[in-house]
Amino acid sequence: MKYISTRGKDKLSSSFEAIVKGIASDGGLFMPEKFNKVNLSQDIKDRMDYRDFAEVIISTIFDDIDKKILREIIDKAYSKENFSVDNALKVEEVNSLYIMELFHGRTSAFKDFALSILPYFILLAKDKDKKIGILTATSGDTGKAALEGFKNLKDTFIIVFYPTDGVSPIQKYQMLTQEGTNVYAIGIKGNFDQAQSALKDAFNDKELRDFLESKNILLSSANSINIGRLVPQIVYYFYAYYDLVKKSKIKDGEEINVAVPTGNFGNILAAYLAKVMGLNIGNFIVASNKNNVLTDFFNSGIYNANREFYKTNSPSMDILISSNLERLLYLKAPEELNSYMESLNNSGTYKISDECKKSLKEFKGYYAEDDEALEIIKKYYKNFNYLCDTHTAVCIKAVEDYLKENDDNRKILLASTASFYKFPASIGKALNISGSDDFKIIDNINKITNIPIPENLKNLDKKEILQNIVIDKEYIKKEIMKILGDNDEN
User: Fold this and answer.
1) CA 382/CA 28 separation, integer angstroms
2) Apex CA 453: angle with CA 447 and CA 456, to 5°?
3) N or C: which end of the chain has fewer CB within 10 A?
């Protein structure tokens, strides 16, 4: 399989090149030349082993990775050591919704699915005499999952940039206490969009690349702009669908809808790619918080990032530049994409053609305010004995609004992306549970609900602070050069 930049300049001959490079030299994102249909045997559907699904689906796209080696790294990535439930995820039926719980990994977020396997891809792909510098921007969950995935990996260094006041206290503490000889979590005085934009610029900065080349270091990314992050996420949509088939909730071939809390558009894009590869999905409910640039886009055809940025109680979706939307537009209107991205870069906005807008009709955009998310949390715990995090609550509210407007009886698979224990202040506010700080609230939520605290969050406040650098966003490039330059002899 060959890989093409969404903006047309770069064409690579292997998945390894696309994974290591991360972002194209023209600023575009890598995509396979084509998406083949997935062929799942009846035996795989009957056995329902997540690793079997991963092997078939990932190898359909990354077809140049030796299948024996691929299976070995899949078995390592999706082991019982990395995930606390059988087959890595659970699907719970709640109030006629099928909630796909993606937070049972080692950092309690859906990012664990891709970031448990991406480090193995990077090691396979890199030249033996080269070192890799992983650059990542995070709005919350990617940071810890990436740091954990790459920690102590030979010849690899990872730098995560996070908005110092733009993640939850628990997400921040997860990063500040990260152990490892090759990991760096850097707070920036700015928001996620500014961090992500600075990192995109860094990938194509000639001075930085020349400097790192002199140190024998290649740059790559652990964000979902990296195709190696995106592809593993396709797997769980197939697995969850056939889990519903196995439980006789749907028939094989029956069309369902999918709802996803959405910020950078990677997770819901993975669902769409599952559809492209043969999964029977009808509509995609795109759930946003008050930073509702995507809601407006899918309703109007106008993308406008020139708006106030809000810090919400669902911080992983506090994003105004939704990077992976570029990949969707590439699939729908490849010849128009460059003009859209140029307009976005120059003016912060673009308007898609009527034809392109019609091609996006299966995407339905909705959003929820902070107080609406808290009401959902309260309602679902009180009425259904189910406790969810704020991002999932935003998604449930979006589904409720969708069902009010549409006479649609198709089953809905809803992605739950993080443990509610990562957002204790919001959960406490919704359920009237108090505490002197977030850690006390966690303990009190546990005492009242009897829901176990994930192992990685237990005693988090007792861990030593190891990462404490905060910089202005203008110094991101300088900090990268300092960290990777200091490590070139290690």
Assistant:
1) 46
2) 150
3) C
pLDDT at 314 over 70: yes
pLDDT, tens digit (0-9, with 9 covering 90-100), for 451-479: 999 999 999 999 999 998 999 988 889 99
CA 196, 198, 201, 206 dihedral sign is negative
Under 8 Å CB-to-CB from 235, ≥6 apart: which residues? 50, 53, 54, 57, 58, 113
101 phi and psi, to 5 degrees? -80, 110
Take residue 5 and report the two structure tokens written for it: 């930049």
Say which amino acid occupies 233.
Q
Torsion of CA 474, 185, 436, 368, to 10 degrees: 70
Hey, how many other C-beta atoms are within 10 angstroms of the C-beta on 359?
A: 16
358: its two tokens: 């019609």
Q: Determine which one of 111, 172, 364, 397 is catalytic.
A: 111
Q: What angle do CA 49, 106, 315 make, to 5 degrees?
A: 115
- The arithmetic mean of pLDDT across residues 25-41, rounded, is 94
CATH class of 90-107+228-454: alpha beta
Nearest to residue 389, comparing CAs of 115, 235, 173, 168? 168
| Plot region of 309 (φ>0 → left; ψ -120 to 50 → alpha; else → beta) | beta
> CB–CB of 141/109 below 8 Å?
yes
**Distance in angstroms (rounded) separating the CA atoms of residues 424 and 418:** 12
Domain boundaries, the chain: 90-107+228-454
CA 14 to chain centre: 23
Question: Cα(55)–Cα(117) distance, rounded to whole angstroms?
Answer: 12
pLDDT at 487 over 80: no
The residues with which 12 forms a beta bridge, in sequence order, are: 3
Q: What is the pTM of this model?
A: 0.95
| Known catalytic residue at 357 | no
pLDDT at residue 488, rounded to an integer: 57
Which of 302-326 are b and which e, b meaning 16 or more Cβ less than 10 Å from the residue's Cβ? ebbbeeebeebbbbbbbbbbbbbbb
Q: What is the DSSP letter of 311?
A: -
What's the rounded Cα separation, in Å, for the pair 438 and 420? 12
